[in-house]
Amino acid sequence: HYKSDVEDVSRFAHITLEVIAARAPLILRQLQNIDEQTDHTPLKNCVDSCIISYTKITNELMPQAIDFAHKGDLNGAKEKATLVGNLADSCEKDCSGSTSGAVSPIGDSNQYVQDMCAITVSMITNFPQSNQQTLA
């Protein structure tokens, strides 16, 4: 019975991670467009920093997180989702105040990534014994 619970949590985590993985390249493209269209230095600096973060999220962290979830390694998936959430959060902090608006130019999309990461991490954290075992 325990194994099927782990499989259920892994499947749910896999789904939320796939959603983040689908959104990240869109945000990256949005950032690149903003970068090309602005000469505003504070905005350009924050966008450049976010491009680095979202390149890492898109090309490295999300594929790793999905692979961990696919293998049933909930700790690995949780670790990567936490990193992605932290990068998205620091991107938000770097960019707030860079434009006349109170939020960054990618605020909603970026917040969505943070929220989905938080859901994934919470789901894994609150699953009993996911911290001790994987589906080896």
Account of the 3D structure:
The protein has a single domain, classed as Butyryl-CoA Dehydrogenase, subunit A, domain 3, CATH 1.20.140.40. Helices cover 79% and strands 0% of the residues. The protein starts with a helix and ends in an 11-residue tail after the last helix. By secondary structure, it is mainly alpha-helical. It comes from Trifolium medium.
List the helices and strands and how they pair.
Layout: H1 2-37, H2 41-71, H3 74-95, H4 107-125
Helix pairs in contact: 1-2, 1-4, 2-3, 3-4
Shape: elongated
Which regions contain 5 or more consecutive residues with pLDDT less than 50? 130-136
According to DSSP, the number of beta strands is 0
Could you say what the CATH topology is called?
Butyryl-CoA Dehydrogenase, subunit A, domain 3
Core attributes:
136 residues; mainly alpha; Butyryl-CoA Dehydrogenase, subunit A, domain 3; 79% helix; disordered C terminus
Q: What's a concise summary of this model?
A:
This protein has helices spanning 2-37, 41-71, 74-95, 107-125.
